[in-house]
Amino acid sequence: MRHDSIIILDFGSQYSHLIARRIRELGVYCELHPCTIKAAELHAMEPKGIVLSGGPYSVYEDGAPHADPALWDFGVPMLGICYGLQEMSRAHGGEVAASEKREYGHAELKIQTAEPLFKGLPEHIQVWMSHGDKVLSLPDGFSDIARTSNSEHAAVCDPRRNWFGIQFHPEVSHTPMGKTILENFVCGVCGCARDWTMGSFLEETIERIRQTVGESETVIGAVSGGVDSTVAAVLMHKAIGSRFHAILVDNGVLRMKEAEQVMARLRDRMGINLHLIDAGETFMKKLYGVTDPESKRKIIGNTFIEVFEIEAKRIGDVNYLLQGTLYPDVIESVSFKGPSATIKTHHNVGGLLEDMELKLIEPLRELFKDEVRALGLELGLDEESVYRHPFPGPGLAIRILGEITRDRLEILRHADHIYMGELKEAGLYRDIGQAFAVLLPVRSVGVMGDSRTYEQVIALRAVQTTDYMTADWYPIPTEVLKRISNRIINEVRGVNRVVYDVSSKPPSTIEWE
Ligand code: XMP
């Protein structure tokens, strides 16, 4: 089934992903593409409307990105947001220049013409501005539909072509009525049906997987217990049953009872054809004596591929490799700014594709993380696995600072288990983006009874974040911290001190190594 869709042309704004998410929240399918995409390519996608995003450039500067001129003859409604408005104006003879005053933050928008973009809104609304340039004179055919004290052309419209431009950002939460504005454009002006639901995605994806894989071919994929690989695995199982082989590699640096829980959830409860590879010894031998974080990562990444490959060859006659690629990774790799320098190395089993001549299957590549979670719930997964915090591929190895020994692993596992349990008990787990314990490479003096102790230190980390690129430390209530600290010091042998990490990212990172 082909859905009504909206295309967003990305001019590089930090908010471009948010536009896509807001439109999808309306139940309308949309895709983000680089602003430089050729209009001919867009025609093949048959969008019902186009949104031009904001961007960090000035339209009149050398090197500023511009839309394909053929875009302007496309014939569907368009909405330009911030840079998008300026680009639309520039291309049609309007004048854009630096504003005397940069406008950043809240502004009050006075609506002059309500229909169709501001339908159902009061005359004055709060909007979020973030611009240094503004439109000074409008192209022919355009007129103002709203203004702020600083922007005469805060919202404009060319009713003949159904083109709209707004200087503010409707996609951010600081524009409380922004969703209605997007809804008026997408569902009202463009007439899109709201048929993009997780239920429809699920049915269509299962059908697509069956068509791709056919009647007899097989698929392998790694699962880690994380939400992406879990949802991808359950989806594959629903589509092709036991012709999907899931592989769980126990690398010896998983959390307490992690492998058992994944087995219970995916094999016993969901019926997935899951192979557990107990490779803890192999990994531990290679990690012995290693203290450098990047070396730990490399050893774990390479050993993972070796172990995975052996199992894949043992299964034999495999045709596809499943990867839990998400939409942000896809957008990142096609951005007009080029792929970002940060390349995920772990679980990058790409080498297998060539060695074993496998084809790639990525059923989640259209989804954002919160959509993957919604799909997980639709597939009947329990909330615990759907809302699990991310866990890095190198596991506890990069949370034991310094050398990894069995004793130190036991200490960290136990402390982390207490910490997670108490966060869940206090109802804080879902509110926190990521939390974990770290074992520090120092000893500190303490007293226990009458004697002096000289033992290890546990640091607790908890962060609030939406994208894991930036993060704030999470303010766990003192009472809860007290309970966690008491329990760890009393129950975990070898620890006599607990500290709380109050650093944000940047300049710190979320992990300690
Ligand atoms: P940092 O520490 O860079 O972490 O602020 C950002 C997010 O990435 C995770 N992380 C990793 N995940 N392999 C992974 O699979 C790694 O080597 C790795 N290093 C960091 C981290 O847990 C956080 O969610």
In short:
The protein has 513 residues and is of the alpha/beta class. The chain has helices at 16-25, 39-45, 83-90, 178-189, 198-213, 227-240, 258-269, 280-287, 293-315, 327-334, 350-355, 369-378, 383-386, 406-425, 478-491; strands at 5-10, 29-34, 49-52, 78-81, 95-111, 124-137, 143-147, 155-158, 163-166, 219-222, 244-250, 274-278, 320-322, 359-361, 434-448, 451-464, 472-473, 495-500.
Description:
With 513 residues, this protein is α/β, with parallel strands linked by helices. It has three domains: 5-189, Rossmann fold (3-Layer(aba) Sandwich); 198-386, HUPs (Rossmann fold); 401-500, GMP Synthetase, Chain A, domain 3, CATH 3.30.300.10. It is 34% helix and 24% strand. It is built from 15 helices and 18 strands. The chain has helices at 16-25, 39-45, 83-90, 178-189, 198-213, 227-240, 258-269, 280-287, 293-315, 327-334, 350-355, 369-378, 383-386, 406-425, 478-491, and strands spanning 5-10, 29-34, 49-52, 78-81, 95-111, 124-137, 143-147, 155-158, 163-166, 219-222, 244-250, 274-278, 320-322, 359-361, 434-448, 451-464, 472-473, 495-500. β16 and β17 (472-473) form a beta hairpin. The protein is globular. The model is unreliable at 339-347 (pLDDT under 50). Xanthosine-5'-monophosphate binds at residues 297, 346, 390, 392-394, 434, 468, 505, 509-511.
